[in-house]
Design a protein that fits this description.
The complex is a heterodimer of chains A (427) and B (82). Chain A folds into three domains: 23-212, NADH-ubiquinone oxidoreductase 51kDa subunit (Rossmann fold, 3-Layer(aba) Sandwich), CATH 3.40.50.11540; 222-310, Roll (Ubiquitin-like (UB roll)); 315-422, de novo design (two linked rop proteins). Chain A has helices at 23-30, 41-48, 60-65, 87-94, 96-109, 124-136, 158-165, 194-212, 251-256, 281-284, 291-294, 315-328, 335-353, 358-371, 379-393, 395-402, and strands at residues 73-77, 114-120, 144-149, 189-193, 222-229, 241-246, 266-271, 277-280, 305-310. The relative contact order of chain A is 0.12. Chain A is built from 16 helices and nine strands. Chain A has 427 residues and is an alpha/beta fold. Chain B has helices at 23-27, 56-65, and strands at residues 10-13, 32-34, 40-42, 71-74. Chain B has a two-stranded antiparallel sheet with strand order 1-4. Helices cover 18% and strands 17% of the residues of chain B.
């Protein structure tokens, strides 16, 4: 496979370059997949530097190389339980054939016996239509099984995906070996995010050098981001906007797309979603959307979620809201998560709405340590990460709350019930 | 036979099975404590605590006797695939 730049290769808008979602537009824009795609996939992906776009950021080539056994299963993961993420849904509706191409290439690379696309209920009709277009054109050797993902936060966790594909509930399960060794019914299983598959489909066509021509060199290419929040949205529902940007894009440019030109309009930016990290306003300048560009802040891009908290909203109150939601999304299978997440959410309610003292802060920190790493999936770990980052990012706010004030309003947080500004509701 | 120092035996807890009955914390008091709700928590706060050779026999007993079959001993190196 050549790695030189091909004529007709898309530039910045890569995944959304076709004029429409149909197979005809797809082939008009990208042409057919090379016949040999899949045979030399791993070295090409290694050279491309593609990392998984589902949040964990594991090198895509190494993940595929780790699936070596017979009767392998390949699953495209389009479940997007995170309320602040919309990029996978957007990709599945606008470029389903790129995802299906990537699935085909990945299936060929591991000689898969079973190929599955796991997508939310509402995406099923679109995907089935795309699959029937392809079978009419006799495009794929494999039959692609579509499995519907329920709308819950943990439904996209790798072991939950495997369990659902086996016919069970979409709930995480205990893992002592990764699915690449033992996944669906004990068979070697490759689970790739649908955006990762779309990138694979493009790398198979245009090569690794083309892929690396954009983005942060340590983690190259483009990535989809979902932007939400911002100063105009206090109190209202948050519209999402999905963009394709080079990795390493400045956070200031990203919040610029939300209409934020003066950072003073913001309190903080949440990067990586409900399992992500708050970046306080004064640290936003200089931060870039890549592992390297966020490492000094203890954050990572996750699945490309950027949520801007307006200056007139309280970060502690917003975090308390999110923690309450995350507690409700626990699969309630693991004791420390089932008990600890509601307890942490209650403690954060106290931080946000009641007078803060050292005892409360110590108890919050103790509870975070008590849930971190103590479940069968990443839900407690991600929740702990968010809570810790809130304590750091809103440290000065915590000081204000000790004295009954709040930076969001610089007025008393006491009064009759919860002040309106303390119920953000912009989920 | 020597166990390579890079891959000590670790105690794995299947949290989906564990109901905090507490037998393991009684058999392995130097390795495990109980949290606020009675679930085992490693004293070193790791999610899969390393079992020192002196505690291996008790650890095996804990694995065998756990009423929820929630414990296992792991010796292989985690390949770290997520």
């Amino acid at each position: 496979m050549t790695t030189s730049r091909r004529t007709g290769a898309p530039t910045t808008q890569r995944m959304f370059a076709a004029h429409g979602p149909g197979l005809v537009e797809h082939h008009q824009r990208f042409g057919p997949l090379p016949e040999s795609a899949g045979t030399a996939l791993v070295p090409v992906l290694d050279r491309s530097g593609l990392t998984g776009r589902g949040g964990a950021g594991f090198p895509a080539g190494r993940k595929i190389a780790s699936v070596t056994g017979r009767r392998a299963v390949v699953i495209g993961n389009g479940a997007e339980g995170e309320p602040l993420s919309h990029k996978d849904a957007e990709l599945l509706s606008r470029a389903p054939h790129l995802v299906l191409d990537g699935l085909k290439v990945a299936a060929a690379a591991v000689s898969a016996e079973k190929v599955v696309l796991y997508v939310p209920f509402r995406a099923v009709p679109t995907i089935k239509a795309a699959i029937s277009e392809r079978s009419s054109a006799k495009l794929d050797r494999h039959r692609v099984t579509v499995v519907a993902a329920p709308d819950r936060f943990v439904a996209g966790q790798e072991s939950a995906v495997v369990r659902r594909v086996e016919g069970g509930p979409a709930l995480p399960r205990d893992q002592t070996v990764p699915p690449s060794t033992s996944g669906v019914r004990g068979r070697p299983t490759l689970v790739n995010n649908v955006e990762t598959l779309a990138h694979i489909a493009l790398i198979a066509r245009y090569g690794s050098r083309w892929f690396r021509s954009l983005g942060d060199p340590s983690e190259p290419g483009t990535m989809l981001v979902t932007l939400s929040g911002g100063p105009t949205l206090s109190g209202g529902p948050t519209p999402h906007s999905v963009l394709e940007v080079p990795t390493g894009t400045r956070l200031t440019d990203l919040v610029g797309h939300l209409g934020v030109t003066d950072l003073r309009a913001l309190r903080a930016v949440l990067v990586g979603g409900y399992h992500g990290s708050w970046i306080p306003r004064e640290m936003v300048t200089g931060a870039r959307l890549s592992r390297a560009g966020l490492a000094h802040l203890g954050a990572s891009p996750g699945a490309g979620i950027i949520h801007a908290l307006p200056a007139d909203q309280c970060g502690l109150a917003r975090t308390a809201d999110i923690l309450g939601y995350l507690a409700g999304e626990s699969a309630r299978q693991c004791g420390p998560c089932r008990n600890g997440l509601p307890q942490l959410a209650r403690l954060f309610d106290d931080l946000a709405y009641r007078r803060v003292d050292d005892r409360l802060l110590d108890e919050v920190r103790r509870m975070i340590d008590l849930i971190d790493g103590r479940g069968s999936c990443r839900h407690p770990d991600g929740t702990a990460r968010l809570a810790r980052s809130a304590l750091d990012a809103f440290a000065s706010d915590i000081t204000h709350h000790r004295y009954g004030r709040c930076e969001a309003t610089l007025t008393s947080v006491y009064g009759t019930g919860r002040p309106r500004h303390h119920t953000s509701g912009s989920r | 036979m020597r166990t390579p120092p890079t891959s000590p035996t670790r105690l794995h807890i299947d949290w989906t099975r564990c109901q905090g009955r507490g037998l393991c914390t009684e058999l392995l008091p130097r390795l495990l404590d109980r949290d606020d709700w009675g679930y085992p928590i490693a004293r070193d706060r790791s999610s899969e605590p390393a079992v020192p050779p002196a505690a291996l026999s008790e650890a095996r007993t804990a694995v065998d006797l756990c009423p929820r079959l929630a414990l296992s001993l792991i010796t292989d190196v985690n390949p770290g695939i997520e």
